[in-house]
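yo

u said u wanted the structure for the complex thing, so here. seqs first:
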Amino acid sequence: MERVNLSRTRDSESTKRNILAAAKMEFATKGLSGARVDDIANVAKVNKRMIYHYFESKENLFKQVIEKAYLDIREAELELNLEHLDAKSALETLVRFTWKYYLDNPEFIRLVNSENLHHARHLKTSKEVVQANRNYVGLVQSILDRGVQEGEFRDQIDPVNLNITIAAIGYYYLNNRFTGSIIFEKDLMDSEVLDKRLEFNIETILKLVSR
Amino acid sequence: MERVNLSRTRDSESTKRNILAAAKMEFATKGLSGARVDDIANVAKVNKRMIYHYFESKENLFKQVIEKAYLDIREAELELNLEHLDAKSALETLVRFTWKYYLDNPEFIRLVNSENLHHARHLKTSKEVVQANRNYVGLVQSILDRGVQEGEFRDQIDPVNLNITIAAIGYYYLNNRFTGSIIFEKDLMDSEVLDKRLEFNIETILKLVSR
DNA sequence: TATAAATGTAAACAATTGGTTACTTGATTT
DNA sequence: AAATCAAGTAACCAATTGTTTACATTTATA
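structre next:
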């Protein structure tokens, strides 16, 4: 029988949550190599030993963080309930969502970069993430099918490439906002500039799929 | 009067070049924090002291590397001589070039990521890079103008956003090839898959600009 | 209530790492 | 040929860092 203790002075679940949250920020801002276990412990207000107690190693902690990051975004996408919209609206909603998610969760982009710098070795063994993504590709495929039926979209569009492009046009812009702002001599994070970029992206995707 | 010594046993220029080349690979594969000065020295076959002699610090060495990386790609773009082509061909050539450059120089992507992780603090003081990029945006703008004159392109297309999108659709795919290959359960680096992606990208850009 | 398991702390360790010191060797100039 | 400066080497250092050891306290349960 599970006991719930509402007034625990010791709370392993909250300790784990705190560690994960602190680790996410630390890894995102400094990368896997740049991240410091001591800093994670300090931010999480937890003794460093607890990190090793619950997560075994810095490497494994990173793995937990990146897995959770992927599951979180895939979960948020499912909550959009795109099945209830016509294909064009569904696609536009997805582009807007992806953009906003990256904008609101810059850590996600950083973590994915880190994981790729390390040849995705942490994600390689994650069945759960693969399955979540399989569902996601299926979702996009069904939007495409619906669009063809409605006479709005071209057929034979590759859902994986479409997916990648939807992510790419948001990800690249936000990932490289620092070098981009210098190079293009323009604040890429200015709110009007951001809004125009989103409209540009929606246009890009809709023109790509339409007949 | 400058003397040229063809048989120097001591060659500061070649030492500097070796350090820069080794540093570029080391920073690209491990990031700024992950890179080891000792490893750079070993690969460059140079005493570690020489790195500090010529480059002052690890940080400054990174700055030299990232600056050169940007100047190199902007230089390669200029050599395409896009002015001699009709607008549509020029744009397609640029998309193909960008893709191939990222494919052949994966270090470039990694370095740009690192620089953004560090808020572009090394590039901030680089007038030369900003100027090179100004020329590049001008080049794309002139292609767009030509396309409008030829009656092929829509007008009022923002050259910066177009630039960003051309880069994005190649960059994202290749940057995230490791996580992408796992997530999409498909080898994104398979040569047929790569070819299809390039065609997809050309289509994306041409549909975006055409009337 | 005794006991074992879970949760937590302080301190230290061994390895690593960016950077430096002290010195040697080779090339150029006068 | 002597003197001067650039180029190069080996050894070392102080600080950092991921990880561990040894120990203490709280909680759940037999």
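Chain A has two domains: 11-55, 65-209. The radius of gyration of chain A is 20 Å.
cya
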